[in-house]
Write a structure and sequence with these properties.
Helices cover 55% and strands 4% of the residues. It is mainly α.
């Protein structure tokens, strides 16, 4: 009886014994050559999730697509995250590479995309202008000046209307009266049609009405 008890006491309790895993020498991921550190055979959890995403790409994409359409908070979070990334140097570099690859595959990619999504782009632009009135007005002012200067083959400099406002202290350069910050123009002291350049030196703050009356005349 004592021998039987000794033999029984030697048998381990399976509930208290941790399973023994035999880890591989290298990570199970196809694109990783690191030493396997996890019992699953991967070097890290990140490597495991990346490998899982590749093998179940369609399932993962479908699940994310459903969540993106149904969860507005999640959708807003992704849009904000993407916007912040696109402002970084790496984001700008990747966007440039992606555009180059698209043009290599299809030189007419931008033209074809504009034709297919013309209605969507127009509506998206209209919604953005309604939601960002000040930014839209600023972009319009800058683009209008550059466009007219290029047509006349004049020097073109990127001009920020807010810089002109701060420099001129909100005073119209034509009538010398205070201007409205929500509605003002950038006037060319020497008109573009007379050979003036689109630059900070040749720009001044002006009321829209004063700028209209001045036209292409040179004020003495």
């Amino acid at each position: 009886m004592a021998k039987q008890k000794d033999q029984q006491s030697v048998v381990p309790n399976p509930r208290k014994v941790k399973p023994q895993y035999v880890a591989q020498q290298t990570c199970r991921a196809s694109d990783c050559e690191q030493e396997a550190a996890l019992p699953s055979g991967f070097c890290s959890k990140r490597c495991y999730h990346r490998d899982y995403g590749r093998k179940h790409k369609d399932e993962v994409n479908e699940a994310q697509r459903e969540r993106y359409e149904s969860d507005l908070e999640y959708k807003r979070h992704l849009l904000d995250k993407d916007a912040r990334y696109r402002q970084t140097e790496q984001g700008k570099a990747n966007a440039k590479k992606r555009k180059e690859r698209q043009l290599e595959r299809n030189p007419n990619y931008e033209k074809d995309y504009a034709e297919i999504h013309s209605v969507e782009r127009t509506e998206r632009s209209r919604q953005w202008r309604l939601a960002n009135v000040e930014s839209a007005r600023k972009l319009f002012r800058e683009a209008a000046g550059r466009r007219r200067a290029r047509k006349l083959d004049q020097f073109v400099e990127d001009i920020d209307p807010q810089v002109i406002w701060d420099r001129d202290q909100g005073i119209c350069g034509i009538c010398k009266d205070p201007a409205d910050h929500d509605r003002f123009d950038i006037d060319h002291i020497m008109p573009l049609s007379k050979g003036g350049e689109h630059s900070y030196v040749n720009a001044q703050l002006a009321h829209p009405s004063c700028n209209y009356r001045k036209g292409d005349k040179v004020m003495v």
